[in-house]
């Protein structure tokens, strides 16, 4: 059985053009035409269409994050089709997170103004969502947005506190230290 290497036409069909690689939204780029014609191994014309306009036509929104733990305010732009946390990280902005899947409350924020979508946010209840809480790791901006980071334990207590009759559990460092000595 002879193994054949693919022809140049097949390679060019499967390869994305260099101009479609990731670009910052603040830069303008020139894009190729929507259709490319190439020849296959059988010498028939093949039309390949790249939908480049869709990714560039997505609106971006200004997101302002008041980080209470670090006493810092971050402002950056996020496209509607990207998670807020991921875009912040791409711009070297460090925000609190843990699971990145919307299952915990480490990246919880309180929305001060604006709107966001968070269809995958399992870590907070519908009740907390209605009170303005959101998760940055699975949140998409729908408008310009201003949010404030929250203490993870505080959000956890708001969500599950009614199930604990005695109130929040106080951390006992001495008992924790003794338990660590037993191991």
From TrEMBL:
Keywords: 2Fe-2S, Chloroplast, Electron transport, Iron, Iron-sulfur, Metal-binding, Plastid, Transport
Keyword Plastid assigned: yes
Signal peptide span: none
Gene3D superfamilies attached to this UniProt entry: 3.10.20.30
SUPFAM superfamilies recorded: 2Fe-2S ferredoxin-like
Places the protein is found: Plastid, Chloroplast
Cofactor: [2Fe-2S] cluster
Role played: Ferredoxins are iron-sulfur proteins that transfer electrons in a wide variety of metabolic reactions.
PANTHER family for the chain: FERREDOXIN, FERREDOXIN C 2, CHLOROPLASTIC
Protein name in UniProt: Ferredoxin
Organism for this UniProt entry: Erythranthe guttata (Yellow monkey flower)
Organism taxonomic ancestry: Eukaryota, Viridiplantae, Streptophyta, Embryophyta, Tracheophyta
């Amino acid at each position: 059985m002879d193994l054949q290497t693919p022809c140049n036409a097949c390679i060019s069909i499967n390869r994305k053009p260099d101009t479609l690689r990731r670009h910052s939204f603040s830069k303008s780029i020139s894009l190729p035409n929507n259709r490319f014609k190439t020849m296959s191994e059988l010498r028939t014309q093949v039309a390949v269409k790249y939908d480049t306009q869709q990714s560039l036509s997505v609106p971006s929104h200004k997101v302002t994050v008041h980080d209470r733990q670090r006493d810092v305010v971050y402002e950056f732009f996020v496209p509607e089709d990207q998670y807020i946390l991921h875009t912040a990280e791409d711009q070297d902005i460090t925000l609190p997170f843990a699971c990145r899947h919307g299952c915990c409350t480490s990246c919880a924020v309180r929305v001060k103004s604006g709107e966001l979508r968070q269809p995958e946010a399992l870590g907070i209840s519908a009740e907390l969502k209605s009170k303005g809480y959101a998760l940055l790791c699975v949140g998409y901006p729908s408008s310009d947005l201003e949010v404030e980071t929250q203490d993870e334990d505080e959000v956890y207590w708001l969500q599950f506190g009614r199930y604990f009759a005695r109130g929040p559990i106080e951390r006992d460092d001495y008992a924790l230290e003794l338990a660590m000595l037993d191991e």
